[in-house]
Amino acid sequence: MYLSKLLYSLPLAATLLLTLPFKSQASQAHSFDAAAKQTASPSATLQQEVHADMNFLADDELHGRGSATRDEHIAALFVASQLQSLGLEPGGDNGTFLQKSTLPVPLPARTQQRIAKFQDIPRKETWNAIAILRGTTSPNEVILLTAHLDHLGIGPANSSGDTNYNGADDDASGTTAVLTLAHILATGPHPKRTIVFALFGSEELGGFGNRAFLAHPPVPLTSIVANLEFEMIGRPDPAVPTGTLWLTGFDRSNLGPELAKHGAHLVNDPHPKENFFRRSDNYALAQQGIIAQTVSSYGLHKDYHQPSDEIRTIDFSHMTNAIASMINPIRWLADSDWKPEWNPGRRPDSNPTGPPPLNAHPPVS
Question: How far is 10 from 80, CA to CA, in rounded Å?
């Protein structure tokens, strides 16, 4: 289906909300929750947009947005239509906002083992949604904002008989964050640097979407100054102070500390044993030398990779404030001349020893 037709065929709630104005205020508060109390709370428009996008992406009718399924494709079309409606430049195939990639046949044995318990359907193609906000004075320097739009699909029933792995936190929340940031940044003053918004497919299968992006990037990879991946920001993490997010690989580069100096409520990843730096799409980019790290507030909740990861579990106040808290730091990064660097000895090896992680997460039980 062509994107021009899609705009009339998908529910229009979130698309219409994107036309409404948004106002934000800088804050020097210690946390984004405190900032919301000291200043005007995030606008009603922002809250409505977050709710609308989440309601679509995590709805039962998308059957968990299973990697490389028709439902992932629908999610990618939805995201692409939102990006197109903002007047952004297409970053996908042939002047579109979609990038399609064929999966290997057969799939790697490890991937087949991973999905054996889930819906037995052909998984032949995956889709990314990509858009470009061209910079004004430094268009050849790029800030990349990403998330993954897929999840696990239909799988084993839980004790309630639910077989739909909606993936509200993982990672409809991150996808919504990138869409919301795209709206706010595209409708404000254009930044000096170019910003690319990329939503990857098939992360849960092993990162096939990010591989397609790296193989056919919409901008030269050497032009990417930094990548921020948004992963599971739908609930607060009790392991960190209230009103903060954490950044994977915080001590690997100077990106996190510098963003914190400019208002980002980011702290070090409190779960180092989980090795989260290597468990999302950012890692493949980091192996190319790009400063690529993931923003999250995942508190190791029990709904991870379960049918219970549903809309009802999302803390929308936390999530909306979290997204709002990143606006000004990202604007600063996109308008500055500053470039992050790896800390000595902390750049990831492009060919690490031992088996690679199964790109995002440990096997599902």
Answer: 12
Residue 228: C-alpha distances to residues 178, 255, 292, 326 (Å): 10, 10, 6, 11
In the numeric block, the tokens 């029990």 are attached to 302
CATH class of 3-13+26-115+123-335: alpha beta
| Alpha-carbon gap, residue 225 to 143, rounded angstroms | 6
* DSSP label of 342: B
- Encode pLDDT of 187-240 as tens digits: 999 999 999 999 999 999 999 999 999 999 999 999 999 999 999 999 999 999
Domain boundary assignment for the chain: 3-13+26-115+123-335
User: Token match 């005007």: residue?
Assistant: 40
Q: Is the four-CA dihedral 170, 175, 181, 184 of positive or negative sign?
A: negative
Task: For residue 272, give the DSSP letter.
Answer: G
* pLDDT tens-digit readout, 36-84: 554 445 678 899 999 999 999 999 999 999 999 999 999 999 999 999 9
pTM (2 d.p.): 0.88
* 173-187 helix and 44-57 helix, angle to the nearest 10 degrees: 140
SS3 label, residue 295: strand
Alpha carbon 336 to chain centroid, angstroms: 23
Contact in structure between 198 and 285 (CB atoms under 8 Å): no
